[in-house]
Automatic annotation (TrEMBL):
Its EC number is 3.2.1.177. Gene3D superfamilies: Glycosidases, glycosyl hydrolase (family 31), Golgi alpha-mannosidase II. The gene is yicI. One of its GO terms (molecular function) is alpha-D-xyloside xylohydrolase. Residues 55-221 form the Glycoside hydrolase family 31 N-terminal domain. This is Alpha-xylosidase.
Length: 769
């Protein structure tokens, strides 16, 4: 929200008060509180008829410093508040220090400095004393708008050349500078400024992050209202935000996700190919079986089959009952599908249509959200007379899960938790929550409710969702997909921008509808999207009005689907290792180039390519004719598909067929390569190959620096370490030693093609030119 009219004036009807000078300071061992006047105090009379802003500075966790600015402290907080599992002030190790008028608060590598003699301001410093950002004049304030609403305002300085990223899954430009962004859930598709997943956290290219600890609407002005500042405001009497230390972007995400919750590790089977019925298409068991048979006859391995909305009867979503006219034997059908090795996913949502048998049941027991006068909240958008399940009511959560339990007992493995964004604010919640704060937070309790049921029934490590909405902390309940995108190259690119922004908001896993959701893609769009989708965290074929079976788009589409599905399966020892890293550290699987190359100025701007795990660079092709432009960082990289080497830093212009795209392996990488290309959850140590990409030279003959020793871990199906391999390069000799396994493995030196096989230690001579 903007409050000013240019630099000098306020907008009509806006009155603002800014922290100006410190009138009192109270310092404890691990925190301090400043009382800031909103005008200069020259005499005692200036202290009358004027407010103070109370500014508390503390550390909620190691390497994170919080600032809470409050105008009137007597306002009742009815919740909800973000659950912060990593909140641990005692373990933060925060300490204060005073030197004259200067007061400092330090936690880990981060220091907050306040000078009591100068004008109001706060400075955040890294471990080397470098200024990261700061609160300057007009950086701590409150304002009243013409409608009488009260807003708390914070501002942090932007340095020259500093970029801002994140704030959820946003399809607008990847670098957020110059944008006005409201953290407010909306069902807006992928082609607008609205977003399904709004996260009040941003990451700076200077090596820090900012989390605004408020679950309601947070309005960000990123170098927009004031071009040298990031401003954030809330309609409240208090504003709390946290500065998260780096110094690297990975360390920022590690600290942020430790605070808000690390992603669960999805089961390995979920990384295979998902096929759905699509949305508005007509289907029954015969149709489903024909799809499964069609994939099998074309030798395309399928891992998950998903039933979208019309598994239930029209006008009755959600009653969680199979349409008996279309599916007279659902248990038998599911058993037949599972006999073929498939997992089953079902579409659900939190809306209860009036025609559903659950409407009367939910109304009778108080499980549906009500208006202030006691009426059940209803409207006709999406479903006629639909109501909303009140997940703040524990009994309503149990009731909802009891309906899903029937499906689990029938053999369903996971759920697509659709919707959760269109949450009204003119309602009363069971637990008394503030409707404005609950609007965004509803997604969290909705997805948590279903995820916890899956964990309870299927076991730890076997739960997975396909969720659309999320708020801060939602990364704990993967996987999330990008929502309703058009079947076009433009939408394909905007989907990737959204995924990269979400990954810089703490989410480890992300997917999208291969081929686009709205409309029917032409074969070129579908085939290009296939390669992108299968080189993503999770891969799903899904559409709106038409099926997404590959043969509907020609035989070449079948070949492309097969090729990249088999490739993903061979990569699973590597990919699941990256998934386990996301689970342990919060560093996402699909990584913007900034995460791996924060010191490279070019990498800070790239939004049409990414790193898949630490060692694979992927550049999707967004053109029918196969032309692609992408950037290769420093070092000699190797094409995974062709073996060609490319020495960077360099921009590449290439043309690729539909069965190809740039996938480059990082210099010095050791890529664990599975033997089984038929399924994602095989025994990866059985027939394992270690593909070693060794040192190479630039055209000028200057050696590229790569590690002389590389450790690579192969996980088991729980994400635990199954075996570790130590690769040592000495001249042209490569030695690889296994730990944790006595099974045979193969080593391939990719530079020369030299190979070796054995157990324990395998030595390959002539490995490097």
């Amino acid at each position: 929200m903007k409050f000013t009219d240019g630099f000098w004036l306020m907008r009509e009807g806006v009155r603002a008060c800014y922290a100006t000078e410190i009138r009192d300071l109270r310092v404890k061992a691990d925190r301090f509180t400043a009382y800031a006047a909103v005008k200069r105090v020259a005499e005692r009379g200036d202290t009358l008829n004027t407010p103070l802003i109370t500014v508390e500075c503390f550390s909620p966790a190691e390497g994170i410093i919080g600032v809470r600015a409050t105008h009137h402290a007597g306002t009742v907080n009815r919740g909800p508040d973000f659950a912060l599992p990593g909140l641990d002030p005692e373990a933060a190790g925060a300490r204060t220090r005073r030197d004259g008028a200067v007061t400092e608060l330090t936690s880990g590598p981060l220091t907050l400095r306040m000078d009591g003699d100068g004008p109001w301001g706060l400075t955040f410093l890294d471990a080397d004393g470098r200024r990261l950002t700061g609160v300057d004049a007009k950086g701590t304030a409150f304002a009243t708008a013409p409608d009488g609403s009260h807003h708390m305002i914070g501002r942090l300085a932007l340095d020259i050349g500093e970029n801002v990223y994140g704030l959820g899954e946003r399809f607008t430009p990847y670098v957020k500078n110059g944008q006005s962004i409201d953290i407010w859930q909306a069902d807006g598709g992928t082609s607008s400024e609205l977003a399904y997943k709004n996260i009040p956290f941003y990451l700076s290219s200077r090596g820090y992050g900012v989390f605004v600890n408020h679950p309601g609407k947070v309005s960000f002005e990123i170098g927009s209202e004031s071009v040298g500042q990031v401003q954030f405001s809330v309609e409240d009497q208090s504003l709390e935000y946290y500065i998260v230390a780096g110094p690297t972007p990975k360390e920022v995400l590690a600290r942020y996700t430790a605070l808000t919750g690390r992603p669960a590790l999805p089961p390995a089977w979920s990384f295979g190919l998902w096929l759905t019925t699509s949305f508005c298409t007509s289907y029954d068991e015969e149709t489903v079986t024909s799809f499964v048979d069609g994939m099998a006859s074309r030798e395309i391995p399928l891992s998950v089959f998903h039933f979208d909305c019309f598994w239930m009867r029209e006008y009755q979503w959600s009653d969680f009952l199979w349409d008996p006219d279309v599916f007279p034997d659902p248990e038998g059908m599911l058993a037949r599908l599972k006999e073929r090795g498939l997992r089953i996913s079902m579409w659900i949502n939190p809306y209860i249509a009036q025609k559903s048998s659950l409407f009367a049941e939910g109304a009778e027991h108080g499980y549906l959200v009500r208006r202030p006068g006691g009426d059940i909240w209803q409207w006709d958008l999406w479903q006629p007379g639909m109501a909303l399940v009140d997940f703040t009511n524990p009994a309503a959560r149990d009731w909802y899960n009891s309906k899903l339990q029937v499906l689990l007992d029938q053999g369903v493995d996971c759920f697509k938790t659709d919707f959760g964004e269109r949450v009204p604010t003119d309602v009363v919640w069971h637990d008394g929550s503030d409707p404005e704060r609950m609007h965004n937070y509803y997604a969290q309790i909705y997805n948590r409710t279903v995820f916890e049921l899956l964990e309870k029934e299927r076991g730890h490590g076997e739960a997975v969702l396909f969720a659309r909405s999320a708020t801060a902390g939602g990364q704990q309940f993967p996987v999330h997909w990008g929502g309703d995108c058009f079947a076009s190259f433009t939408a394909m690119a905007e989907s990737l921008r959204g995924g990269l922004s979400l990954s810089l908001s703490g989410f480890g896993f992300w997917s999208h509808d291969i081929g686009g959701f709205e409309g029917t893609p032409d074969p070129a769009v579908f085939k290009r999207w296939l390669a992108f989708g299968l080189m993503s965290s999770h891969s799903r074929l899904h559409g709106n009005v038409s099926y997404r079976v590959p043969w509907a788009f020609g035989e070449e589409a079948v070949d492309v689907t097969r090729k990249f599905t088999l490739l993903k399966h061979r990569l699973m020892p590597y990919l699941y290792g990256a998934a386990a890293t996301a689970h342990r550290t919060g560093v996402p699987m699909m990584r913007p180039m900034l995460l791996e190359f924060p010191g490279d100025p070019t990498a800070r701007m790239l939004d049409r390519q990414y790193m898949l795990g630490p060692d694979l660079l992927v550049a999707p092709v967004f053109t029918e004719d196969g032309q692609v432009e992408y950037y290769v960082p420093e070092g000699t990289w190797t094409s995974l598909l062709t073996g060609e080497t490319i020495t960077g830093p360099v921009w590449r212009h290439e043309t690729h067929g539909f069965d190809s795209l740039p996938i480059l392996v990082r210099p010095g990488a050791v890529l664990p390569w599975g033997a089984d290309d038929q399924r994602p959850d095989s025994d990866w140590l059985d027939g394992l190959t270690l593909r070693v990409f060794g040192p190479a030279s630039t055209p000028a003959g200057t050696p590229v620096t790569v590690p002389d020793e590389t450790l690579v871990t192969v996980p088991d199906l729980t994400g635990a370490t199954a075996a570790t391999f130590r690769a040592v390069r000495d001249g042209d000799v490569l030695s690889v030693t296994a730990r944790g396994t006595d099974r045979p493995f193969r080593v391939v030196a990719e530079e020369t093609g030299a190979t070796g096989e054995g157990t324990g230690t395998v030595t390959v001579r002539g490995a490097f030119a």
